[in-house]
Each structure stands twice: as structure tokens, then as C-alpha cells.
Amino acid sequence: MSNRFDKVVALCKRRGFIFQSSEIYGGLGATYDYGPAGVELKRNVSKRWWQHMVYAHENIEGVDAAILMHPTVWKASGHVEAFHDPLIDDRVSKRRYRADLLIESHINRLRASDKAERADFVHERFIAALHAGDVPRALHAIIMEEKIRAPDSGAFDWTEVRQFNMMFETHIGALSGSDSKIYLRPETAQGIFVNFQSVLNTSRVQIPFGIAQVGKAFRNEIVARQFIFRMREFEQMEMQYFVRPGTQQEAYELWRERRWAWHMGNGIAESRLRWHVHEKPAHYADAAVDIQYEFPIGWQEVEGIHSRTDYDLRRHAEYSGKKMQVFDQASGERYIPYVVETSAGLDRTVLMLICEAYREEMVDGAPRTLMTFAPSMAPVKAAVFPLVRKDSMRERAQAITRVLRRRWNVMYDEKGSIGKRYRRMDEVGTPFCITVDNESLAGKGVTVRDRDTLKQERIADDQVEAYLAAALQGWHTGDDDS
């Protein structure tokens, strides 16, 4: 990992964004807990996604499906048969890797070394391997012929490539056996598809319309590193948009445009976003593209937009015996809708915002670390300080805090010097710090410090709420001030 990424991870623990899960017992691999700052950031992302995806569209409804589902759901969806990763082991380090990612990294290294012709040749072989009848053998052949070494040990001593199903199994009921086996859902989309007719029958929607969901998913990732980027328990923000067959391309382009704009609206620089077209779309898709972000660990996917055809609804109709059709009164035709999916990783979006916001700078000869979150995303909107621990200052500062907390997450802090308190808030990404000082006691208002510019201005006590509302609204066009 890069030095910058290590610093980001360290700050996340130091300032209460993200902790290793079960850390007092040595931790559990690829599982993490969100601390006080992290849970606020995560809720802000989820809230803004719901606002823009559901409330801003009159033809999109929400659901919250159960994590545990009938096991036939996963047979119909193809997960039991096809939800595999090609894995290979390094015999020296005993580490396991995804074979496809090893080859992709090798291609990127060739391009970085100005070996474009060789990179193109390997890339063509890679695409052919993904479409081969025996994918593991084809990928293994590339690794062997290109002499790709293990990233951690540097050894060239590989096992064969094997397919590994990533679904977590569990059992339902008092007894454990084949009849009681079920799965923790590996994606949230199927909870939408099995509820398609129920939503259609209970909501005043018609084609085209969408169903949105934010929820947990679980994958038994063997190669699960890079902090919260790849975890075994994670959250997805997904929307399935149901359209008339033949119109899916138009909807696909529409949602590509909207989802790109949403990420930029979160404060992400466009120069660190790019499109990545799938070399081999999933078995259910006729088109697929990812939005990637340039993390300190390289370009990685944060959201996928997929044209899923009618695969899911058709398969569930076949396995359940229930109709998944809609009736078009104008034409008198019945058909199974096609689906365009937007699927964003909530945890990956949080990590992207943290990486984007992280800054280091020098102020008056001293180093300063700050998080430059857009105020709509900042975990703490404002902090209120008494300059010193005087009863009169404390009471004034606490009264202001109580007023502001009716609308926002606001922190009160009286410990340490005012400079140290400013630095703590900078590292959490708090946009404004409000200080009650001696002039405040003389009726001259309070000072408000801007996180990014460090400028301070004095405003009247009774204008603090209005000032903060206007500042938060003004910094993020199109959002409310929450």
C-alpha cells in the first residue's frame, strides 16, 4: 500500500472513523466497525443516495428485503452455479490471490514500463481466457507463460487455478443438514427482483419504474485486503430500473449520466473518476460499465451500471412458477421487463470520500492534517468551544450547542488549548468551529472559523443557526441543510 493510504488508515482509527472489528481479541480479517465519526459519514452518504435516488424520482420506490432468503432464490439467480472467483495459491507465502487480478496488475505494469505492444498482446489473451471453456486453465497458462510472480513473496511457485464459490452458508432451524442449508445474501438485487410483483401491485407505478434498496451483503472473499475496500460484510446501494424491452439502452445511458453526476456532487474531483467497460459482462448482462476512482492503491470500482436484460425476472418466473410480466394497456401486450441496474458500494463510497478529503499542509510553519469533506457529507457540521473553562463561557457555548443540535450533529469541546481543539476538528473534517470568548461575554457575538480558509468572522449569538444553515446550503447546491 502507498504511504498516503497508510496515513488515511491511521487517521481513520485515530479520529474514530473506522476500527478493526473485534480488535481486543486480535481482530477478524476483512471485517471492520464504524466509529462515531465513521457512522455519521456513512449515514450521510446513504441519506444523500436515498434522497437523490428515491425522493427525487416519482417513479422509484424503496424496499428493505431480508438478508436470509429461500435457497431457491440463489439457484434461480445463478449464484449457486456461477458465483465463483478464480483463485491461485503461492506455495511459498501460503497466500491466495485472484488469478484475474494478478494478470490485470501485470498488464498495468507493462503499460507503466512503456511496453504497450506486449501489454496489448497479454490483454488480448486475457480477454480470450475469460471467454474460454476452461477459464481456470486459460488464466493459469497466462500466469505461467508471463512468469508473473507473487506480489508478497516474489516467488514463482504457483498452484493450479481453482474456482471458489463466495457465498456464506448457514443453517436454519434446530437441526443442521442439507435440508436446512441457506445462504447469507451475496447481493441485495435479488431481494428487489423477488418483490417485483408485490411492489407493482401495491404502488402506483408503471413501466418505467425503479425499486431501490440499501442493505448488507456477504461474500466469503479469500483475497480480502485493502482496508474497507474489499470486505466480507459490506453494504450496497442498489436500484433496479424496469423498462420495456428495446428501451434498455436509453435507460442505461440515462443512469450512467446521473450516477456520474451524483459522485461529483459529493465533492469528488472529475479527474479522479473514470469509466471502465467490462471486458466480459456477467452472464445476465448485455452491457456493463464501472465508475472507478483513483484511490491511493490505484484505480478501483466504486459503482457498476449494468443492463441486466430480463434474465433475473425470467429465471424467477421459471423457478417459482409465478408470473413476472406487466400488461401494457395501450398495446394489449404482456411482457417481462428488462432491467437497468445501478449498484454502488456504500463502504467503498465512504472510503473514496475519505481518500478524496485527506489533506496535509503547512500553516505558519506547523503541519496541519485536515479532511475537506463537503459539508453535506461532514460527520460533524460544527464544533462549539468556550475559549477557556470559565462558567460564563461554558454556559454560553453549551446553550449555542443545544440550539444547533436540534438540526445537526454538533460537537461541544472544552478540553485542551484552542489550537489543539481546532486541529482535532480539522482531522474529523468539521467545516466550522464556533468560539465563545471574552468579547462574546461583552455582547459582541462569537467567532466562526472556516476549516479550509482558516478565516474567522464575528457574528451575533442569535444569528449562528441561520449563518450555519446558509453556509451548509450554499456549499452544496441541490441539497438540504441536514
**Outline, from the CA principal axes?**
globular
Total domain modules? 3
Distance between the first and last residues' Cα: 35 Å
Under CATH, the topology of the largest domain is which?
BirA Bifunctional Protein, domain 2
The count of β-strands is 23
Mean pLDDT: 92
- Please identify which CATH superfamily of the largest domain we are dealing with: Bira Bifunctional Protein, Domain 2
Quaternary organization: single chain
Strand order of the largest sheet: 3-9-10-16-13-12-11
Largest sheet: 7 strands, mixed
**Count of helical segments?**
16
Q: Percent helix among the residues?
A: 25-40%
CATH architecture of the largest domain: 2-Layer Sandwich
CATH top level of the largest domain is Alpha Beta
Which blocks of ≥5 consecutive residues have pLDDT under 50? 475-482
**Structural class by sheet pairing and helices:** alpha+beta
Q: Measured on Cα atoms, how large is the radius of gyration?
A: 26 Å
Strand content: 25-35%
Topology:
Elements: H1 3-14, E1 18-20, E2 32-34, H2 36-55, E3 60-62, H3 72-77, H4 79-82, E4 84-89, E5 96-98, H5 99-112, H6 116-130, H7 135-145, E6 162-165, E7 169-171, E8 181-183, H8 189-193, H9 196-202, E9 209-218, E10 233-243, H10 248-265, E11 273-277, E12 287-295, E13 298-309, H11 311-320, E14 326-328, E15 333-335, E16 338-345, H12 346-357, E17 358-363, E18 366-371, E19 382-386, H13 391-404, E20 410-412, H14 418-428, E21 432-436, H15 438-441, E22 446-450, E23 456-459, H16 464-474
Parallel strand pairs: 3-9, 19-20, 19-21
Antiparallel strand pairs: 1-2, 4-5, 4-6, 7-8, 9-10, 10-16, 11-12, 12-13, 13-16, 14-15, 17-18, 21-22, 22-23
Helix pairs in contact: 2-12, 5-6, 5-7, 6-7
